Amino acid sequence: MFTEEHQQLRHTVKQFVESEINPNVEHWERDGAYPAKAIFQKLGALGLLGITKPEAYGGLNLDYSYQIAFAEELGAAHCGGVPLSIGVQTDMATPALARFGSDELRQQFLSPAIAGDMVAAIGVSEPGAGSDVAAIKTTARSDGDDYLINGTKMWITNAKQADFICLLANTSDGAIHRNKSLIVVPTHLPGISFSEKLDKLGMRSSDTAQIFFDNVRVPKRYCIGEEGAGFTMQMLQFQEERLFGAAMTIKSLEGCIDATIEYTRERRAFNQSILDNQAVHFRLAELQTELECLRALVYRATQEYIAGQDVTNLASMAKLKAGRLSREITDSCLQFWGGMGFMWDNLVSRAYRDQRLCSIGGGADEVVLGIICKKMGILPKRQG
């Protein structure tokens, strides 16, 4: 699937991670945020924020295999928060805007997002509606040529640095899958406020906050595509979000395995290295094998996505496997580090905390299992 052009892209991303991200991770982790716009402008100058986006708006118009190569290399960052934040910009907040937005919207918001001059956020989750997207309560009521938006969004990555939010809101009282719209909402508008940064278990380099909307007035022309089509658009966006997230875990987990091999080779107990114990090196070989299975699943789903097929099932499987494997690999590796693995700034312990989100965000394991079961035709009949 990968050509010389893909390898050149990988090399560019690898150099960026090594020079612009990893040297700064320790203090970004302590600060609970990183300078998103400064990093995004550098990524934008390299063309990395619009790999699959239309050329007319500054993108490279390449197929999604290039985005997967980008996501994989981004995963080599020594934290999960910065890659997550970048993925929000490229694969969560802007796909629907790029595909369905009006030319005016794309000129005003997509072009500067691709250039890195604007930071984007995606506003879907709420305190009472995480994986259950249909249960959101935020409303955008018609008022002449405008919407008046009221409600709150929770766990929003990039929240306090965002220039605009791609917001999912109820624009009518109709059926829950046909009454929602995606609306671009600039964050400088009156009526928008933010909580303090949320104190998270992991992903600490990315700023995350709750956002409140109190009669926020937005022109109706900021609606992406047709009114009422927001739920469908968000489900389409999930295909890219889940593929990107799964791809992003690969090099992070590979880094955990590599670091553990290096540490256990040097660390000695009972007159031999920890790595010389068969239980240790057999387990690491097993984990590497599982990781290659994940990589193969991501690549297959990507090839089918490029071919225009619906990959909801495969993307859900990849996301599920990435979340489960993130827990398994980081837990096993941390165990082999012993007491050093229990230290806060250890690379493996950080991955242990950061990658735990993979089984929660973008659809919890239980939700994606339901999607897979539905595709298999084995969902239980509803009672009553």
UniProtKB/TrEMBL annotation:
GO terms for molecular function: acyl-CoA dehydrogenase activity; flavin adenine dinucleotide binding. Residues 228-376 form the Acyl-CoA dehydrogenase/oxidase C-terminal domain. Residues 121-216 form the Acyl-CoA oxidase/dehydrogenase middle domain. Pfam families: Acyl-CoA_dh_1, Acyl-CoA_dh_M, Acyl-CoA_dh_N. GO terms for cellular component: cytoplasm. The keyword Nucleotide-binding does not apply. This is Acyl-CoA dehydrogenase. The lineage of its organism: Bacteria, Pseudomonadati, Pseudomonadota, Gammaproteobacteria, Alteromonadales.
